[in-house]
Amino acid sequence: MENTKGYALITGASSGIGYELAKLFAKDQYNLIIVGRNQAELESKAAEFRQNGVDVISIEKDLFNREEVFQLCEEVSSRNLLVDVLVNDAGQGVYGLFKDNDIKRELKIIDLNIGALTILTKHFLKEMVSRNQGKILNLASIASTTPGPWQAVYHGTKAYVLSITEAIREEIKDTEVTITALLPGPVDTDFFNKADMQSSRIVQDKSSLSDPADVAKDGYDALMSGTDKIVSGFKNKVTVAMSNITPDTTVAHMMNEMQKPVEE
């Protein structure tokens, strides 16, 4: 297939924000490399994206596994695929008190949210800088700006994502490569099921959850304009602004009240 815009490589493209982003890229005639753990699910989404007349390559990899992340980089390189855009969407959380949560599960989440993102960003950033062209979108969160009782590790990983994105942006400011952080608030996706978080107060209030399509559009527009970061949604912008001028202890208490189980 004629490659007019190169490829957008998107992790977590089979559901949620990643899926909505993939739809936007396909509509805008980007070819896609979609990555996930379920090949059948990937192929189903690939068939849908191909209806836009673009090439779609699905690659089954478990990004919790560091070796498979490196294998992904090697496979893309061995197939001579030009990645114009990297979207690090895949991420997961775990709900509960830090002292009670399974450390092995938390370490796997760190491997995914931090390890995989770091490996993929470094690999494709090098290629983009050598060409002096490319874009990277990293999924941070408004969680990156606040302490997160009941989701301590998740908030910590997202703080890393925001920090490294802003640091890299400064390092590459004299190139034509851009890197953007997308900071949504709670979104109506399968994230909360995977995190075993259905008992949380913040999830019980469905009106507080954003539409993933709206979040994806905000992120896509920010990426294409080269914006450094975008907080998706007016309410979330207010939340971040308030947290910036509120003592961390107070913010932590507020987050504890929002995120603790409804029966607490």
How would you describe this structure in keywords?
Rossmann fold; 7-stranded parallel beta sheet; 10 helices; 264 residues; 50% helix; alpha/beta; 7 strands
Give a description of the structure.
- The chain is α/β, with parallel strands linked by helices and about 260 residues long.
- The protein has one domain: NAD(P)-binding Rossmann-like Domain (Rossmann fold, 3-Layer(aba) Sandwich), CATH 3.40.50.720.
- Helix content is about 50%, strand content about 15%.
- The chain contains 10 helices and 7 strands.
- It has helices spanning about 15-25, 40-50, 65-80, 105-130, 150-170, 190-195, 200-205, 210-225, 235-245, 250-260; strands at about 5-10, 30-35, 55-60, 85-90, 135-140, 175-185, 230.
- The chain has a 7-stranded parallel sheet, sandwiched between helices.
- Helix 4 runs parallel beside helix 5.
- The longest helix has 29 residues, at about 105-130.
- The radius of gyration is 18 Å and the shape is globular.
- The model has no long low-confidence stretch (mean pLDDT about 90).
